[in-house]
Amino acid sequence: MKKRSLLLIALLMLAMVFAGCTAAESEAEDPAGAEQAADDEIVIGMVVRDIETPFIMALIAGAQAKCDELGYTLDVQDGRGDSLLILEHIDNFLMKGVDGFIMSGAIDLKAVVPGIEKLNAANIPVMALDSCPEGGDIEMFVNFDNTLETERATEVFIEGIKERNGGEVPEGVVICITGDLADMITGLITTGFYNVMNQYPQITVVEGEGKWNNEDSYERTAELLTRYGDEVLGVYVHTPDIMGTGAIRAIETAGLDPVDYGVCGIHIGPEFLDLIKQEKVLSCVEFPGYDCAYLAVKYLGDIFNGVPLPEIGDIIEEEGAIWSPAEVMDIKTQSPNANGLYLRVQGPMVPTEVAVDDPRLWENMVESW
């Protein structure tokens, strides 16, 4: 009996030693506190479109900058504008258990709604940039107003026509290079453009679909310049950041001077900013994409920390910020079937409101990324 007791004690001691060794090995593989740190880590999933384009790089850089400040991890995936791929990324984020989500880069904004609703069901807050899903609960859509900013740019475009024609708007043709006609943003920009152009019935507008790329923009501009020749009073480009250089190349290839066509639009990008510096084009409204993404992460951080989001009617101001003042509105003003807030930021007109070398323009930050 005594021997059996001694044997049991010995076995118990061996088990304790083994358990101690196992714990020590576990601590070596996962240092003290590592498991707790992993549990506390905040991860934000972000879907973009065409990850290597400068505009998307600006969005990622802005989100990453604020994540770095707050100690968050940013997980970026390229949806390439493909709704099925975007939904797949959302499913993967749900499996990973991300804490927040930023949507930027869908073309079919209705097709991605099921993914947004899955995030809603999992209580994962959703932010939207550049374009807004056509349904679901969005905590905040951070963007400028594509229609209003296009109206501003079109008014400058008309002033350019007047300056080149003795203060008058004569009869003639205006070439308008549109974005992808399947994209909701194209519709918003088109509305703003015609809100101004319809005031000048003596102008005939001819459209060419640039499809958000310089090659299609080049081909459509070249075709329309050949067709209408001396009748053309100007060339308006929806978003010159990704279609402007194509339009300018078409004008120059035809042996014409771009200055005589007063190219304008919204969204500048590094290449078009360079054309403004060369004084080959008239003007453009800059979209503060870097700042919008930075603000999206900032407000996600507020949600994580229990800080209430601003309310409809609030004016958000930050001294020295090119996006300020920003108005808080109902998201339904931009996406009627969605629920949430819309933070309408400002877009500066370059070069009249903000100089081309202003360091606050994300286009002047690109080389540092």
Helix tally?
Answer: 11
Q: Name the shape in a single word.
A: elongated
% residues in beta strands = 15-25%
Spatial gap, N to C terminus: 76 Å
**Can you write the helix and strand succession as a string?**
HHEHEHEHEEHEHEHEHHEHEEEE
> How many strands appear in the DSSP assignment?
13
Strand arrangement across the biggest beta sheet:
2-1-3-4-5-12-11-10
Structural category is alpha/beta
- Return residue spans where pLDDT drops below 50 for at least 5 consecutive residues: 1-38
Give a quick account of the main beta sheet: strands, pairing sense, barrel closure. 8 strands, mixed
CA-based gyration radius:
27 Å
Q: What is the residue-mean pLDDT, rounded to a whole number?
A: 91
> Percentage of helical residues?
40-55%
Explain what the structure shows.
45% of the residues are buried. Helix 4 (83-96) packs parallel to helix 5 (113-121) and helix 6 packs across helix 7 (184-197). The termini are far apart. Helices cover 44% and strands 18% of the residues. The protein is an alpha/beta fold and 369 residues long. Residues 1-38 have low confidence and may be disordered. The longest helix is centred in the first third of the chain and has 28 residues, at 2-29. It is elongated. The strands form 3 sheets. Strands 2-1-3-4-5-12-11-10 form an 8-stranded mixed beta sheet, sandwiched between helices. A hairpin with a 7-residue loop joins strand 11 (326-330) and strand 12. The chain has helices at 2-29, 34-40, 54-70, 83-96, 113-121, 146-164, 184-197, 214-228, 240-253, 269-277, 289-304, and strands at residues 43-48, 73-78, 100-103, 126-129, 136-143, 172-178, 203-209, 232-237, 284-285, 315-316, 326-330, 338-344, 349-350.
